[in-house]
């Protein structure tokens, strides 16, 4: 069976100031998500599943879903704060979603093959989909064999402000040994720095490998994440700022010897839209890729 691509599109885009998942960057009004679907299909993925919010379902169906009719099997699910395992308690006044780890969990019923996970507002490049699809084909009959596309941190920064990245430690066989979420990362003078919990400025090597949330999982991931989410809720049920992240699950499984994560090398170039100002560069990047014949003028 061909792998499934899960696209996380439920974020509010607070720093950007709107629903950047629906912003048009291509010459015919294409969104970054459209390019991800195009790349996934030609790389060999057989189904697309979107995680969205209920309150923009109508706009999503009109602007996004309608494009894929007769192109590829597509489905969407809702990420809702109330979507928690039976018997778990939480503060019913909470409005903020539970994070990327929870977003993956809500898609379980829509996925029955090994699957990849990406952000809706990140452009990953065709080769990243190719190497991930090939890996997922090879591990289809196994459990605990995951993957992550690794990018050099220096190629993932924004000139418009701070970013957050999962900084990775990798062994000599390109197996992930640890991933730590760093926030407020920015190029300062000639070095890349982040601000830690104590408001201390710390540096990161220019060639550090980071996760841009392009993961590959076998189906056992769902059972592992559900158990960890139940524990997370028990510990954070009254903390309205706590979030459950994919790297939390991955680190736990690595440390317990329950999973192995292969960091996949790629020649693809990443770019994204974190701030409104980033859109100009994203439009230019797409234009240049079309001029190089890496993408057709019209992809759908």
Defining traits:
300 residues; alpha/beta; Spore Coat Polysaccharide Biosynthesis Protein SpsA, Chain A; 11-stranded mixed sheet; two-stranded antiparallel sheet; 7 helices; 13 strands; globular
Quick take:
With 300 residues, the chain is α/β, with parallel strands linked by helices. It has helices at residues 32-43, 57-63, 100-105, 126-138, 220-236, 246-255, 278-291; strands at 4-8, 47-52, 73-78, 115-119, 122-123, 145-152, 163-170, 176-188, 191-195, 201-204, 209-217, 260-264, 271-272.
List the helices and strands and how they pair.
Blueprint: E1 4-8, H1 32-43, E2 47-52, H2 57-63, E3 73-78, H3 100-105, E4 115-119, E5 122-123, H4 126-138, E6 145-152, E7 163-170, E8 176-188, E9 191-195, E10 201-204, E11 209-217, H5 220-236, H6 246-255, E12 260-264, E13 271-272, H7 278-291
Could you explain the architecture of this structure?
With 300 residues, the protein is α/β, with parallel strands linked by helices. The protein has one domain: Spore Coat Polysaccharide Biosynthesis Protein SpsA, Chain A (Alpha-Beta Complex), CATH 3.90.550. 26% of the residues lie in helices and 26% in strands. Strands 1, 2, 3, 4, 6, 7, 8, 9, 10, 11 and 12 form an 11-stranded mixed sheet that branches. A hairpin with a 2-residue loop joins strand 8 and strand 9. Helix 1 crosses helix 4. It is globular, with a radius of gyration of 19 Å.
Looking at the structure, what is the overall shape?
Answer: globular
| Residues in helices, as a percent range | 25-40%
How widely separated are the two ends? Answer: 24 Å
Low confidence ranges: 12-17
